[in-house]
Description:
The chain is mainly alpha-helical. It contains six helices and five strands. A three-stranded antiparallel sheet has the order 1-4-5. Strand 2 (about 110-115) and strand 3 (about 115-120) form a beta hairpin. The radius of gyration is 18 Å and the shape is globular. The chain starts with a helix and ends in a 12-residue tail after the last helix.
Amino acid sequence: xxxxxxSDIEEVLTKGAEIPKDKINKFGKSLASLIAKRxxxxxxxxxxxxxSNIGNPCLRRLWYDKYKPEGxxxxxxxxxxxxxxxxxxxxxxxxxxxxxxxxxxxxxxxRKVAGIHGSSDVTIDGHLVDVKSASSYSFKKxxxxxxxxxxxxxxxxxxxxYHTDAQKDDNVSDKDAA
Length: 178
């Protein structure tokens, strides 16, 4: 069940697990694809409101993203690496979750609410899950429950959008939480 997810992942990490070769190969291809995608040159896309930016508390930034995109700062190599590293962490966690016996479905499932698009991370054991990696300092606010005041990136609004769309999703059995 979702309640044992963390302890089951910890058990695989401490005791190990037998992993079928096909799962290993699938994981390797997934990692290679993810890295290749992140290393592609950035293509300029017109601004669209997405679930990942609807909760951004800085409305001015959204305005500039839409109306003055040429003024945007380029992401530094270290920031791009941080995003790649977060993606890799997500892949590893989901792989170990699956190896530990949990049902992992609907990775990066397309979602839509009121015309706003997004992609939820995954459904695990019938629960909508958004995977986050963070420093130990930043992780404290997730452990105690991320409040609106501490949510500088709009994660709560993003997850609420995914959760709203998931109400009609048969793979999500827990309709009350995400």
